[in-house]
């Protein structure tokens, strides 16, 4: 068994204990005069092993606890938290939250989510898969991954391999009588390698992230993938400044979807800090494109039956036939905007970008997306923070490959790609069937009709 794993039976007992603690603190908050109260409590364990050049670099065991309490005295709010679950610390946290609330200004949008929106069904989302791996086995696995990558001719060095196993238990409860329990596991493997020639050094990596260790790619396959990606970058060139179509690989394409989420999230909207302000119901993407939130996917990276306020989650379109169908709201931002919560307090749950294009026929695999790109830029990495969600301006450092006639011609680096997100979203030509499932943002590669590429 793992050195730190929470057993199947122990996890249920721990959840019951957290739930009892949360309900008790809520009762005590009400007795202290709070009109409403909510509690989040969690326990997490982890094993993280890093190896480099066959030797152990770090072994880290973690066991974290968290307890957060928010109380409302009418429209006045106070919050406090602790990492210690003993009785004295919990009482001090309660006292502090109540004291803060008594001195804060009233906020008309403050308060719990509506009681009628609380989740009442809790399906098994298949998120709990403790990994029975101990430290020696994790070290051996990391060494196996690294050895597979270093075995490739041309690989000159390694930045190391990592093996991570993690388990988390959490309870959210509030004075509506809602008590929600969640337990989940997250495990990952990763390898970063270096290759070089007379022109210089190149590095690249690969990783896998799963709920169940049974779903991992093999150690050999991960090492091979990291090595192939690293070797492909050797001999990278710069490009002259030009305009061209740009294809983002899935792991980079999901960043484009992340910018969309930021622009249509409540905090940006009520602060009037978004280029998509007042765009609900308007066409912002091609008419063939739909993006749907699916919170109940089995083993999904973002699956959950309720959000951070207990509001029930449900399948819901964000983009429907190119139209922005709704915003992404928790109860606070919804009240600030005069709208209703969309069940997204704490974030989005499994956003699925449906693969396709404007032509008849099935979605393209990665090779098909390269052919559709024709001659242009394939982006495999972006750098820097040059994204302004107020104006939509997008300018980031990039690396990848120049593609000619649907075939990769040579690697490129030290370039900048630029456009406006509004034009990029409306200029999406196709979304590939090569979906990256290592994230809660599920998308294939995304082809944009035209961007400016700045190089030499």
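^ structure tokens above, recovered residues below v
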């Amino acid at each position: 068994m793992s050195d730190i794993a929470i057993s199947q039976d122990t996890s249920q007992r721990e959840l019951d204990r957290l739930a009892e603690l949360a309900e008790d603190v809520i009762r005590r908050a009400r007795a202290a005069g709070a009109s409403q109260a909510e509690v989040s409590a969690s326990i997490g364990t982890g094993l993280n092993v890093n190896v480099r050049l066959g030797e152990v670099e770090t072994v880290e065991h973690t066991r974290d606890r968290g307890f957060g309490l928010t109380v409302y005295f009418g429209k006045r709010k106070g919050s406090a938290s602790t990492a210690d679950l003993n009785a004295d610390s919990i009482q001090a946290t309660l006292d502090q939250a109540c004291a803060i609330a008594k001195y804060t200004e009233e906020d008309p949008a403050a308060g719990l989510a509506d009681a009628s929106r609380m989740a009442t069904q809790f399906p098994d989302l298949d998120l709990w898969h403790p990994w029975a791996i101990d430290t020696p086995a994790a070290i051996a696995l990391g060494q196996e991954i690294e050895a597979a990558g270093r075995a490739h001719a041309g690989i000159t060095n390694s930045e190391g391999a990592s093996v991570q196993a993690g388990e988390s238990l959490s309870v959210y409860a509030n004075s509506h009588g809602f008590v929600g329990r969640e337990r989940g596991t997250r495990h990952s493997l990763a390898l970063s390698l270096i290759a070089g020639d007379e022109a210089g050094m190149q590095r690249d990596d690969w990783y896998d992230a799963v709920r169940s260790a049974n779903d991992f790619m093999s150690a050999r396959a991960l090492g091979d993938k990291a090595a192939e990606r690293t070797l492909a970058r050797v001999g990278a060139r710069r490009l002259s400044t030009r305009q061209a179509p740009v294809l983002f690989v899935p792991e980079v394409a999901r960043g484009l979807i992340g910018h969309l989420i930021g622009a249509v999230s409540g905090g940006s909207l009520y602060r009037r800090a978004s280029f998509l302000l007042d765009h609900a119901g308007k066409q912002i993407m091609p008419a063939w494109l739909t993006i749907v939130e699916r919170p109940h996917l089995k083993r999904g990276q973002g699956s959950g039956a309720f959000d951070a306020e207990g509001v029930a989650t449900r399948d819901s379109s964000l983009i429907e036939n190119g139209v922005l169908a709704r915003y992404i709201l928790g109860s606070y931002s919804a009240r600030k905007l005069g709208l209703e919560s969309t069940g997204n307090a704490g974030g989005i749950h499994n956003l699925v970008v449906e693969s396709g294009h404007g032509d008849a026929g099935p979605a393209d695999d990665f090779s098909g997306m390269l052919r559709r790109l024709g001659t242009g830029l394939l982006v495999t990495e972006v750098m820097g923070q040059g994204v302004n969600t107020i104006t939509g301006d997008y300018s980031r450092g990039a690396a990848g490959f120049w593609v000619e006639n649907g075939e990769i011609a040579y690697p490129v680096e030290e370039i900048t790609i630029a456009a406006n997100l509004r034009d990029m979203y409306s200029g999406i030509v196709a979304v590939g069937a090569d979906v990256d499932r290592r994230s809660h943002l599920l998308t294939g590669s995304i082809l944009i009709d035209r961007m400016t590429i700045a190089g030499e």
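The first helix runs from residue 8 to 31.
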